[in-house]
Amino acid sequence: MIVAGLGFSSTATADSLRSAFNVASVGHRVDALATVAEKMGNAALTDFAEAIALPVHFIAPDDLIGQRTLTCSPRSRATHGTGSVAEASALAAAGFGARLLSPRHISDDRLATCAVAIGGQT
């Protein structure tokens, strides 16, 4: 499974998410989206997921910790215990043995990030 992980601020819009997703997902057939569970019910996320017709996996905060990310945001590290919510969410949702296909990419408005991971099992 190929998963696009998303990290975003509370002021991000569906266009913010789309901007980051469009760059990170180039060349990959994404099967699902993922983000931290606290974003459940976020209108921008719901709108974006519906627009591209992908399911969203919500990751428990503890499952982000320990994921090996390529990038490190001090804000993400302080708030969520991981260098990148986007990368850690993608890895956690993709499952055991997952690896990143794309490090996080930042939206044009700098309100969202997206990274893509593939699961280690077929």
Automatic annotation (TrEMBL):
What are the CobE/GbiG C-terminal domain coordinates in residue numbering?
2-117
Looking up InterPro entries in the UniProt record yields:
CobE/GbiG_C, CobE/GbiG_C_sf
Q: Which domain of life is it from?
A: Bacteria
Q: What is the name of the protein in this document?
A: Cobalamin biosynthesis protein
Q: Where does this protein come from, organism-wise? A: Ruegeria haliotis
